[in-house]
Amino acid sequence: MTRTARAYTNIALIKYWGKKNKQLKLPYTNSLSLTLDRFYTDTKASIVDSDQDIIYLNQQLLDDAHSKRIRNYLDIVRQFYSFSEHFQIDSVNHVPTSAGFASSASGFAALAAAVNETKQLNLNRRELSILARNGSGSASRSIYGGFVEWIAGNDNASSFAQPIDEHPDIDLSILSVVIDTQNKKISSTVGMENSVKSSPFYPNWVTLVTSEIEEIKQAIAKKDIQKIGEISEHNAMSMHALTLSANPSFTYFAPETIRIIQIIQELRQKGIFAYATIDAGPNVKIICTKESLPKVQTYIEQQLSNVTTVVANIGSGIEYI
Ligand code: DP6
């Protein structure tokens, strides 16, 4: 019996934003994330007698256009490990209705693990992280639980994630605030490419991330949650400054995104622990403590009628079920 691979999504506290090698998805900088327990992808790979991969997502057969990225990825995997079989991929995303989490991190981590299982490649977690990275950069980190650092590296073999603390005993929870938006989404791949190409601040970003990675690792070691919150929020805002300063300028923020950032500042002034982090979309992930989370949640829901919230805690690495 082939087991199903399960991978959880992760939220970057120090963001990956820019590739020095597009084909290999080698980033300019290290990045650091927290794996979450609520959002995951279950994927099973079965070998089929066909010259094409067949991809099901949430029980629906994907057409050529929607399965292209996955089929291209499976071509890379076949080339890496010198085999020729094709797969039927059955992948299910367990994400509370539009929780606003990108599924590419959990998706490609689960896919890499599923192929590893079916083809009995016996990859260790470092090799699995490298394989997942070739699907989507952030997927390299979803191999591990807890706090994870992706080492940028210089070639395919040296760019992988590694755990910092897989089961941290630390009082942090994430409140995801989901904003409905009609905005056409600019993918992270395109957004980071435009930022690297045209933001005059990109070189400063590389310098900033290098120092913030070290600072946040020290804060994690000391369980200094306030420092973790401060550095994470500053890093997220600096990433979004790269989109605003790109030419042409663009932003992932919706009006509600700004409103939530202001609310978080108001809450802090009232002594309530809350820090924002935002990925390539309008939704805000709020870093809270167990104590502050219900207060933050109630306040946000009172102030904004058109948002939904989802609570997540620290999650684990790849599992086979
Ligand atoms: C803002 O991993 O989705 O979430 O490697 O092009 O697939 P590709 O990009 P992706 O980018 C994630 C960007 C981010 C920050 C992060 O997760 O580090």
From TrEMBL:
For molecular function, the Gene Ontology terms on record are: ATP binding; diphosphomevalonate decarboxylase activity
Keywords, ordered alphabetically:
ATP-binding, Lipid biosynthesis, Lipid metabolism, Lyase, Nucleotide-binding
Cellular component (GO) terms are: cytosol
Report if keyword Protease is assigned.
no
Q: Which Pfam families match?
A: MDD_C, MVD-like_N
Question: Residues of the signal sequence?
Answer: none
One of its GO biological process terms is:
isopentenyl diphosphate biosynthetic process, mevalonate pathway
Q: What is its EC number?
A: 4.1.1.33
Every copy of the Mvd1 C-terminal domain together lies at 175-308
Record domain Diphosphomevalonate decarboxylase-like N-terminal: where: 7-161
Q: Does the keyword ATP-binding apply?
A: yes
Protein family membership: Belongs to the diphosphomevalonate decarboxylase family.
Please give the name of this protein: diphosphomevalonate decarboxylase
Organism from which the protein derives: Companilactobacillus mindensis DSM 14500
List the lineage, top down. Bacteria, Bacillati, Bacillota, Bacilli, Lactobacillales
